[in-house]
């Protein structure tokens, strides 16, 4: 009985547990900033008006807005455990996020999703989930598991599962692939939402994709693309992550009536971004700096997300709504002073006010020791005398070029050996080719973060160092490592599915920086991020050439070379 | 599989069943009026862009908007059967309505609600229902049935039941009456909405009422009242019915961001209004004439209502949405040219294009013969020599005044006898008093439309004519009748629960006018509607004096005199 706790408080016949006195607050219903006392009891806003409480905080000159909601994020991209992620974002005003556990699902399947559900239970940041729709993402790759409609149906009954995650397989939708449409129908039938992923889709094809029930987009990179999608009924998740940044192009959507259909998301965010700039607060700050209507920016960051995902009683400062509140010492610079989750203080002045414990012990085993490469030796990497394709890097891009063939590494020709080693079922499959433009002069760099199947990907100037890197990752259950002359120069263990670490955001960022610097020290080009770049060399859905455990894929021709 | 039918059409690989070519259409997501072809298949919008179809209609210079939704109406107020109501409103662009069967529930209880559900099945106007929350409306009255939480729970599982209807018992909410809160919790627990009814409620009490989960209002009569309610999170249903008209005061809410939370409703509408002016189209027309942003007015009349009630795929001209469309030959005058329901033509140029059949045979019996007064004679109305209270009418108002006492009718003192005869359980209970200001010089006027319990209410200058009127209503199963000198002068039989007739809107209006004219001919004051005024003389929740079967109620003192 939600009203039982708050009715007497709302009426003023009982004091509130907490009152934010004389606060400027965002009224999400009118887009106004009004001034009032905000009474909180039983985890909810009991009243907005004139109230007294057992605890009262003078908020004169400060602003209260609803807690921030990340409408689409792959938590794994932060390389942090869910609890560590919560520790990192709660002080920035994030009170909820909608996660797509796509990465861990590719490694551990349903066990990975179960782990994420368990590990996020009871956090002061509500983590909701969309069930991955495209695992594996391609037939030219080998991942840990295949998820079908049954998985979607099974998880749709979970309390915090809201629907089907980004449908990247838009050809499957447009060509009416039964298995693809079945997943969508299952989610819709269970009352779930279906998120989209269709960069550049337009016109008749976009109509078909949207009409299939796919009602959001976070891939639009231009105002025109986003506007077309919004006009056709998709909620636009304005993405401003660590790598992909679309806010500047899409900020104009926050003006006029279209703001009603805009949300904010990170998609992928690295620990350095969270530590240095923040989370959703960072996006709102930037939007306002770009000239967006502040009320609309805050509404996109809260109420709109709640509306899109049917999160009732969430996203507003109004009676009956959950008291997920952010107190700002300065509104337009989004200076977060205090964060309240269900009415209780979670963070103040950038620091947590209560410990956030890991609670994933139960599921942890199922996502540990996931680097299964079996017996491994340098011999598996031997290419002696063989002609192999050369993939060319394009600075600051994920796309690659066809650079013909080569038969050996070469410092002067900037050619390193690239290997993708299957690590889920110890099949012993190894894909090999050469990579141009990586810059490495000696040693090897390897990581188990290798989209989307997350096998081991290694780049190196000699087989011995590459083999040692693989062994090292096997030993620590996955991670990132730089090796030279038979020595480990730097490493970041990622024991959780080979994707997430046991460190805090700050420590993770420091370790990650050490690993990158070690790679640069071995000559890695400064035009690239030696680890992030490597992690996308195995994603066979981005043109033009990629390497998987099965060999080099001609993405355009949709076939193996 | 909704997409199966429309995907090939959206892609343009199959012709649409229907294409509205080159139409200006309302984009509810951006508030723009754009021009495109609208392709329809399988009852849904398949695509918005450039399309061809088996049937194509040139809409150059015309406007397409989503079908209109009445967000709160008591269908019984139209005095029409549900099918006749649909016949009357479909040509005006109404494609859905959210009905509160409060009147018939007071007469027939769950049978009445069941009848409404059956009678509305398969109509080209979707009728959704909210379950009445206050039956009976007062302890000082005798109605046909009492509805509790069990009724709410039972009906919440019905497909077209959306929640709990207007919670008029706001004291019950504020004083935490367990039975009242239980109904609310039941509806919320079943995922339903709870509509409000709290005229003038403000401040702390309004916070408590809203916080209890009551998320809409249709009683606000001033801009300030509506704004306060909207700011606290209530959806504002701007009411413009036959009697209560709040549009002029509330139209400013349609400007600015607050338009997102506005809906349109009639609450009560008489056949004359439907025939003469229309339904929701009439409200939109007036709003635009009052200077409202046309896009916002149309959005309030469609998309917003769908949003408030969680009607997915409803209220927009976009792929995947139901093709409930209204074609306007002129936008700002809301000139309805054609109406499409699920893509098929329902009406053109004000006339239905297909018959709308009654389908209520099954439940009809349970709502017939509901005038159960048992043995009745003029003797039951005898007040010889007794002093009885006098209720005073206030022209154009529902409130009444205390006019002391009298012991007989008097033409020169403008005093008629007023009787409320219990008609549900033949208890023989009769409430008697005198009424000042009604104007009648001879004969009697009686009706079974008597809010909210709908007993027989009769006003007359002599007991014999009053008794004959009661007998007449008993004979025809309820209705409205005017009697003089032992002769029936005019009548409108309302055989469905004594509330609704078997006539079309036009015929009903003609019959109703005859009845009113007959009353005026007997001297009824032209400052009042002799039937409507009478029907509110028994509603003991409106100050200051009302008459029920138990006697005169002092509404302010909340007691019987």
Describe this structure in words.
Two copies of one chain form a homodimer. Chain A has 561 residues and is α/β, with parallel strands linked by helices. In chain A, the strands form five sheets. In chain A, strands 1, 2, 3, 4, 5, 14, 15, 16 and 17 form a nine-stranded mixed beta sheet that branches. Helices cover 27% and strands 28% of the residues of chain A. The mean pLDDT of chain A is 96. In chain A, helix 4 runs parallel beside helix 6. Chain A is built from 17 helices and 28 strands. In chain A, helix 4 links the parallel strand 8 and strand 9. The N and C termini of chain A lie far apart (63 Å). The longest helix of chain A is centred in the first third of the chain and has 18 residues. The interface between A and B is large, with 57 and 57 residues.
| Uncertain segments of chain A | none
Sheet bearing the most strands of chain A, described?
9 strands, mixed
Greatest interface and its residue counts?
A-B, 57 and 57 residues
Assembly form of the protein: homodimer
**Overall 3D geometry of chain A?**
globular
- Write down the overall mean pLDDT of chain A: 96
């Amino acid at each position: 009985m939600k009203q039982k706790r708050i009715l007497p408080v709302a009426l003023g016949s009982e004091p509130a547990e907490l009152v934010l006195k004389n606060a400027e607050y965002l009224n999400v219903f009118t887009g106004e900033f009004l001034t009032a006392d905000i009474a909180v009891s039983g985890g909810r806003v009991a009243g907005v008006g004139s109230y007294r409480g057992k605890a009262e905080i003078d908020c004169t000159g400060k602003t209260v807005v609803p807690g921030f909601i990340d409408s689409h994020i792959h938590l794994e991209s932060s390389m942090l455990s869910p609890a560590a992620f919560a520790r990192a974002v709660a002080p920035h005003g994030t009170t909820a996020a909608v996660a797509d556990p796509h990465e861990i699902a590719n490694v551990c399947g349903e066990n990975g999703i179960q782990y994420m559900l368990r590990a996020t239970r009871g956090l002061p940041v509500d983590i909701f989930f969309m069930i991955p729709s495209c695992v594996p993402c391609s037939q030219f790759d080998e991942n840990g598991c295949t998820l079908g409609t049954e998985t979607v149906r099974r998880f749709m009954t979970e309390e915090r599962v809201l629907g089907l995650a980004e449908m990247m397989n838009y050809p499957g939708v447009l060509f009416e692939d039964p298995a693809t449409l079945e997943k969508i129908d299952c989610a819709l039938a269970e009352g779930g939402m279906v998120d989209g992923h269709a960069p550049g889709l337009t016109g008749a094809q976009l109509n078909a994709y949207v009409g299939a029930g796919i009602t959001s987009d976070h891939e639009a990179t231009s105002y025109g693309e986003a506007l077309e999608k919004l006009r056709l009924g998709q909620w636009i998740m304005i993405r401003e992550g660590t790598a992909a940044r679309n806010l500047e192009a899409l900020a104009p959507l926050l003006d006029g009536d279209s703001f009603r259909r805009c949300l904010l998301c990170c998609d992928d965010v690295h620990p350095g971004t969270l530590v240095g700039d923040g989370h959703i607060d960072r996006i709102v700050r930037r939007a306002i700096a770009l000239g967006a209507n502040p009320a609309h920016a805050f509404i996109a960051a809260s109420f709109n997300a709640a509306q899109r995902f049917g999160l009732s009683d969430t996203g507003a400062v109004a009676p009956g709504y959950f008291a997920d509140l952010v107190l700002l010492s300065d509104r337009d610079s989004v200076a977060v002073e205090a964060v309240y989750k269900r009415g209780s203080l979670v963070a103040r002045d950038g620091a947590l006010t209560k410990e956030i414990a890991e609670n994933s012990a139960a599921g942890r085993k199922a996502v540990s020791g996931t680097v299964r490469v079996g017996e491994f030796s340098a011999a598996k990497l031997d290419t002696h005398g063989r002609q192999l394709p050369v993939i060319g890097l394009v600075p600051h891009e994920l796309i690659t070029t066809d650079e013909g063939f080569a038969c050996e590494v070469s410092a002067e020709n900037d050619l390193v050996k690239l290997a993708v080693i299957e690590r889920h079922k110890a099949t012993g499959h190894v894909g090999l080719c050469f990579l141009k433009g990586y810059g490495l002069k000696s040693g090897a760099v390897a990581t188990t973060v290798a989209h989307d199947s997350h096998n081991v990907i290694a780049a190196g100037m000699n087989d011995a160092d590459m083999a040692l890197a693989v062994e090292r990752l096997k030993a620590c259950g996955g991670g990132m490592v730089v090796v030279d002359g038979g020595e480990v120069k730097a490493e970041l263990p990622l024991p959780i599915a080979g994707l997430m670490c046991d460190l805090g955001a700050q420590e993770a960022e420091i370790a990650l920086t050490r690993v990158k610097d070690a790679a640069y020290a071995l000559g890695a080009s400064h035009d690239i991020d030696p680890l992030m770049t490597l992690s996308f060399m195995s994603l066979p859905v981005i043109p033009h050439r990629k390497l998987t455990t099965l060999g080099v894929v001609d993405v355009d021709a949709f076939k193996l070379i």
